[in-house]
Design goal:
This protein has 439 residues and is an alpha+beta fold. It has 2 domains: 341 residues, Outer membrane efflux proteins (OEP) (Up-down Bundle), CATH 1.20.1600; 82 residues, Single Sheet (Outer membrane efflux proteins (OEP)). Helix content is 67%, strand content 14%. The chain has 11 helices and 8 strands. The chain has a 4-stranded antiparallel beta sheet, with no helix packed on it. The chain has a two-stranded parallel sheet with strand order 1-6. A hairpin with a 2-residue loop joins strand 3 and strand 4. Helix 5 runs antiparallel to helix 6, helix 5 runs antiparallel to helix 11 and helix 7 crosses helix 10. It is elongated, with a radius of gyration of 40 Å.
């Protein structure tokens, strides 16, 4: 590429870059803390809104199950045309047609109060209550997953802002370095090739900065949609959380906390208890049911004599029913429910095994992230010292530009790695909180 063509290409690139002002300067910005992120993200989550509806449905099912304890009351009203009765006094010959009213009426009130149904009502109420608890535990599980997903995007936004900060500082230093290189070129100490390479490096840095600005706008839009805010807001993360001081507990302590607080563990225990309740419900079908009944009826005409008069009668009693067929029909249902309980117990044990692995993984990853930050702090100091030495050597004509640019690239990569490592510490900390049931 000739020098003239390159200069034209460079002017076009610089014109495009300058045409794009920083995104944050074009739109409104909003400081977003982690607490606000979680509050608004949870409040506007469609998944959690669906969980709330499921909880409301479970509450209504519980009230429906409790209503089975109340008496059944029925009101009856019958009215209609009464046909001409026919009476045979001698076989089926010589029929008689007695007088009878043309209209019949019947008013009745029936009440049935369950007294004992083998524990069916009690266990049905307990089942509905357990389903209500399951819905609440599922909401807690989904809430923790949503918070962690929101935090992942928040950490991406945080990393992008720190990358922009590093790139801006690097561009400022590159401009100063380019100024020195042009001075050396005017003094005849270096060739024009060093000037061109420095300008190309500066152009690449500016393009990287523009890409970072665009990425900030895109991640901000995604979070704004999830939080129910205006999409054009540019979000700024809270930098105070970059240096958390959290003392690590022992692995056994985290395991104990996870067994006690993890919503999925609670969900597994509740499912096992629900399976045990299903066994009791299946057994209730093989037990007798006892009810108290009462009724009152007002009818016209009198059913025996067909006299056109009202007749009122009432009765109170106890009803006992026992299904003999349940002795041979219900056995397999009970066995199936016992197997279901064994399956739920097995799933609970599997979850305990997975939880130990998840806690161990989160614990070691968080510890690893902390160690990586400390190691990269040393790398930063070494990279900065290496760049300082190479810059002095280059200005004294003891090194070539390639060595200086390589040293700058190493320093830039080390700074970006430190930013990523710091955000990784925050994410692994919340990941550890999630598996312990605290998120």
């Amino acid at each position: 590429m000739s020098l003239k063509i390159y200069k034209g290409y460079r002017r076009c690139l610089l014109g495009l870059i300058l045409a794009y002002q920083p995104v944050a300067a074009q739109t409104d910005s909003l400081l977003l803390t982690v607490d606000r992120l979680f509050d608004r993200g949870v409040q506007h989550s469609l998944r959690l809104q669906a969980d709330d509806l499921k909880e409301s449905m479970a509450k209504e099912r519980l009230q429906t199950a409790k209503a089975a304890r109340l008496p059944d009351i029925q009101l009856g009203l019958k009215g209609g045309v009464l046909g001409q009765p026919i009476v045979w006094k001698r076989g089926i010959t010589d029929p008689a047609y007695p007088e009878a009213p043309d209209w019949s009426q019947n008013y009745a009130v029936d009440l049935v109060q369950p007294i004992y149904q083998g524990g069916k009502i009690r266990n049905t109420v307990h089942k509905a209550d357990m389903e209500k608890q399951l819905a609440a535990l599922q909401t807690l599980t989904d809430r923790a997953e949503i918070k962690l997903a929101l935090l992942s995007q928040y950490m991406d936004l945080f990393t992008l802002y720190k990358q922009r900060e590093v790139l801006v500082r690097n561009i400022e230093e590159s401009e100063l370095r380019l100024r020195d290189i042009r001075r050396l070129k005017r003094e005849g100490l270096i060739t024009n090739n060093d000037v061109l390479r420095s300008e190309m490096q500066l152009t690449n840095d500016r393009l990287s900065l523009q890409e970072t600005e665009n990425s900030i706008a895109l991640v901000s839009q995604q979070l704004n949609i999830l939080m129910g805010q205006e999409e054009d807001l540019i979000l700024k993360p809270d930098t105070s959380m970059l240096y958390p001081v959290v003392a690590l507990q022992s692995y056994d302590d985290y395991i104990t906390q996870a067994y006690t607080n993890d919503p999925e563990m609670k969900l597994g225990r509740a499912m096992t208890e629900l399976a045990q309740n299903e066994i009791r419900l299946a057994r209730a079908a093989s037990l007798p049911s006892v009810s108290l009944y009462a009724s009152n009826a007002l009818a016209r005409p009198v059913s025996r004599t067909l006299a056109d008069m009202y007749n009122n009668n009432w009765n109170v009693g106890i009803s006992v029913a026992y299904s003999l067929s349940s002795l041979y029909k219900n056995n397999h249902k009970v066995k199936e429910n016992r197997l279901t309980k064994s399956l739920r117990t097995n799933e609970e044990e599997q979850k305990m095994q997975r939880l130990r692995v998840e806690v161990r993984t989160a614990f070691l990853r968080h510890k690893e992230a902390l160690q990586r930050v400390e190691a990269l702090k040393l790398s930063i100091r070494q990279a900065q010292e290496n760049y300082r030495i190479m810059q002095n050597r280059y200005l004294n004509q003891l090194a070539i530009l390639t060595d200086l640019l390589d040293a700058n690239s190493v320093r830039l990569n080390a700074e970006l790695q430190l930013v990523t490592a710091r955000t990784r510490v925050i994410y692994t900390y919340y990941q550890l909180q999630k598996v312990c049931g605290y998120l």
